[in-house]
UniProtKB/TrEMBL annotation:
Coiled coil: none annotated. GO terms for cellular component: membrane. CDD domains: MopB_CT_Fdh-Nap-like. GO terms for biological process: respiratory electron transport chain. This is Assimilatory nitrate reductase catalytic subunit. Transmembrane segments: none annotated. PANTHER family: NADH-QUINONE OXIDOREDUCTASE SUBUNIT G, RESPIRATORY NITRATE REDUCTASE. The lineage of its organism: Bacteria, Bacillati, Actinomycetota, Actinomycetes, Streptosporangiales. Keywords: 4Fe-4S, Iron, Iron-sulfur, Metal-binding.
Length: 672
């Protein structure tokens, strides 16, 4: 076997790697995200995903291995029966931001054409949906980072609000060694330790902090008036709306001293080249969209977006977190980042799909609302799950488990027996990253080609095969070859905001990725889409006035401590993949809760004690880790194991429908 150029199975950096004989993994140096030759521990050990013994290799019907045709016939007939008894919306589809563009596209078409259901959404709702909503409002388009990652290296200052890239995307840090870094995080993380300035707010107060910083920028006359006049609208209204956010008030709310806010604003304003980036820490709140709007307002006032060498960006998370939100697995969306309620968009896509536009269902429920409705009167009775493990990763997980248990039919596609797959009536065993080809759009908006490097084990088929085989039984023809699906996707996206029509597999290979929009095969692609104008009708970026508000759940006498959640280096998401890799389990063997020494002393908790953490929604046990890197009023739990999400609050952001993963009220006790 010769070495094959492909990409990592995990996060949105999509580090380039070569897979050689014996499944050796070597970093590629031609992919800018990790041109330094870096991979993180998850990337280095990814080969084990292909060989470890826990691989599913046969379809399972009620836990028993069966032939493919038996499983496919069963699912198709059950879907038809449920649909004829309860109507098309009784069947729901849930996708994921780890799926290739081809799969995300096919899944959206499968829901709308083969099943005729409006009920499709995906785990990206839980990820960067707040940043996406805020970018759409401000810039008219959501390309998470509208610039190549290598641009960051030349900046003077980078502010990162609620991101811990040193653990979540280690090679990212190599792009940040030049600029001075300002990190906003309630914990002194590995990333915060690299920072020139670390602001350590109370969780859930970033919105106030951003308002306070903009208030200071105005008071200290640091606003780039010429940029504001030439490239934006709405600043006067925002300026007026900030009057009451004077710095001392913001200090009281956030706990961040005024002098630090001033230091941050001055650093950002003093220089020509600065970036403001947001991660999940700022975004996964019931006010995540407004929080990101406040940071974008700050960036606009300082004249950063749409200028070569400066900007605002969202650090997207999943492998195809960017592409996964563009091609129609989101409830309100059609391919090419088109809106499902836009008549012209419906006409165009219906033309590609060969169906009347009127047959494309309207928008359905968002991810959490969909899970919450399962098995309820009027809610879906069957769920088709591709690329997510909501028993672990959805908020209020016990409630979600109850809803899933109330279904008439749960079908999952996976390559391992995830906690959710274990509950399914039917599990289809599918191929994974290095066993199949497809495109992934990384956090920069660069479309990349993941190539098949090894033959899949006997007995598995691709997600595209499963979708096509079920569609065929339901009377529709779907393509199964990734390149042919991509060609159809190109046509479906043509003319939309995320226009892929000029991108081909050959071009991606020759050009080490192509940035969308790319409207023709002669077009070079668009690394920095906003340099001339923004994607709004008048070409100007829009300031959006927003106000701070408290989290959906405040601490009180019963639940006196804030819980925040997030990630550790060794594990990926729900852990379905990484909890099966020996070196990663060794690096991070068990769920833990991080708490400050003062809080631990007050609660009589010693390092290594098992503690019980409870919220209004559930209870969970974890090992105590005591660290002065966290605030006294806050504890932190990673969500890679069952437990953290039994506690979290499913309060939703009104615009993005993002749940409040990053803050809820809990009680912490030693488990006697
Ligand atoms: N190792 C690893 N890497 C990953 C993933 C993984 O599961 N594991 N997942 C990938 C995906 S899908 C994503 S979305 C990204 C996420 O990447 P990040 O956004 O970097 O990850 P998180 O750990 O969720 O959150 C980042 C930080 O937010 C902080 N935080 C918590 N509450 C608040 C708050 O109220 N305000 C502020 N400012 N900060 C707060 C946390 O302390 C945490 O350090 O990572 C990607 N990379
Ligand atoms: N408390 C808390 N909860 C969170 C978060 C948080 O910060 N705190 N973060 C949220 C975020 S940002 C995210 S992105 C979600 C992620 O959480 P999930 O949606 O659960 O994502 P994964 O764990 O990546 O689940 C992927 C599942 O699909 C399988 N899989 C991977 N690739 C494929 C494929 O190509 N095809 C198929 N069929 N299956 C595949 C994997 O084996 C695994 O079982 O969690 C969210 N939940
Ligand atoms: S940083 Fe992300 S893409 Fe790179 S090796 Fe690690 S998990 Fe893979
Ligand atoms: Mo994510």
């Amino acid at each position: 076997m010769t070495a094959t150029k492909t990409h990592c199975p995990y996060c949105a950096l999509q580090c380039g790697m070569e897979i050689g004989p014996g499944l050796t993994i070597t970093p590629r140096t031609d992919i800018p995200a990790n041109a330094s030759g870096a991979l993180c521990q998850k990337g280095w050990t990814a080969g084990e995903l292909l060989t470890n013994g826990e691989r599913l290799t046969s379809p399972l019907l009620h836990g028993e291995p069966v032939e493919w045709d038996v499983a496919l016939d069963y699912v198709a007939s059950r879907l038809s029966a449920i649909r004829s008894e309860h109507g098309p919306d009784a069947v729901a589809v849930f996708g994921g931001g780890g799926l290739t563009n081809e799969k995300a596209y096919s899944l959206g078409k499968f829901a709308r054409v083969a099943l005729g259901t409006s009920q499709i959404d995906y785990n990206g709702r839980f990820c960067m949906s707040s940043a996406a909503a805020a970018s759409l409002k401000a810039f008219g388009m959501d390309r998470g980072m509208p610039f190549p990652i290598t641009d960051l290296a030349d900046a003077d200052v980078v502010l990162l609000a609620g991101g811990n890239v040193a653990e979540t995307m280690p090679p990212f840090v190599r792009h940040l060694t030049g600029p001075r870094m300002i990190v906003i995080d309630p914990r002194r993380t590995q990333t915060a330790k690299l920072a020139w300035l670390h602001l350590q707010p109370t969780p859930g107060t970033d919105l106030a902090l951003a308002l306070g910083m903009l208030h200071l920028a105005i008071a200290d006359e640091l606003v780039d008036e010429a940029y504001v006049a030439a490239r934006t609208t709405g600043f006067d209204e925002v300026r007026t709306s900030l009057a009451s956010w004077w710095p001392e008030r913001v200090e009281r709310i956030t706990g961040v001293p005024v002098h630090q806010m001033r230091q941050a604003v001055r650093a950002l304003a003093a220089v020509g080249k600065a970036y403001i980036l947001t991660g999940r820490g700022a975004e996964q709140h019931s006010k995540g969209t407004d929080t990101v709007s406040a940071f974008i307002n700050l960036a606009l006032a300082l004249g950063l977006p749409g200028v070569h060498g400066s900007g605002y960006g969202c650090v997207t998370g999943q492998g195809n977190g960017q592409g996964g939100r563009e091609h129609g697995q989101k409830a309100d969306q059609l391919p090419g980042y088109r809106k499902i309620d836009d008549p012209a968009a419906r006409e165009h896509v219906a033309g590609v799909w060969g169906v009347p536009a009127a047959d494309i269902p309207g928008p359905g429920r968002s991810a959490y609302e969909l899970l919450d409705a399962l098995g309820t009167p009027g809610g879906p009775r069957a769920l088709m799950l591709f690329g997510s493990n909501p028993i672990i990763s959805a908020p209020a997980a016990e409630h979600v488990a109850e809803r899933i248990a109330a279904l008439d039919l749960l079908v999952t596609c996976d390559f391992v027996m995830s906690e959710t797959a274990a509950l399914a009536d039917v599990v289809f065993p599918v191929t994974q990253w290095a066993e199949e080809s497809g495109t992934m759009t990384n956090l920069e908006g660069r479309v990349l080609l993941r190539r098949r490097a090894v033959a899949p084990p006997e007995g598995v088929r691709s997600d595209l095969d499963v979708i096509a085989a079920l569609s065929e039984r339901l009377g529709h023809h779907f393509e199964t070859e990734p390149v042919r699906v991509f060609d159809e996707l190109r046509r479906a996206s043509q003319g939309g905001p995320a226009d892929y029509s000029g991108i081909t597999y050959e071009r991606i290979a020759d050009e080490t990725g192509v940035f969308w929009p790319c409207p023709s095969t002669e077009h070079p692609g668009t690394p920095r889409p906003f340099l001339d104008s923004f994607a709004t009708p008048d070409g100007r970026a829009r300031f959006v006035p927003v106000q701070h508000r408290p989290p959906a759940e405040e601490i009180d006498a019963d639940y006196p401590v804030y819980l925040s959640t997030g990630r550790v280096l060794a594990h990926y998401q729900s852990g379905a993949q990484t909890r099966r890799i020996a070196a990663l389990v060794q690096a991070a063997p068990e769920p833990f809760v991080e708490l400050h020494p003062d809080l631990a002393e007050q609660l009589d908790i010693a390092p290594g004690d098992v503690v019980r953490v409870s919220s209004r929604r559930g209870e969970s046990k974890a090992v105590a880790r005591i660290s002065d890197a966290i605030r006294r009023d806050t504890v932190f739990m990673p969500f890679h194991w069952e437990g953290a999400n039994r506690l979290t609050n499913p309060a939703l952001d009104p615009t993005s429908r993002m749940p409040e993963f990053k803050i809820c009220a809990v009680r912490v006790e030693r488990d006697s």
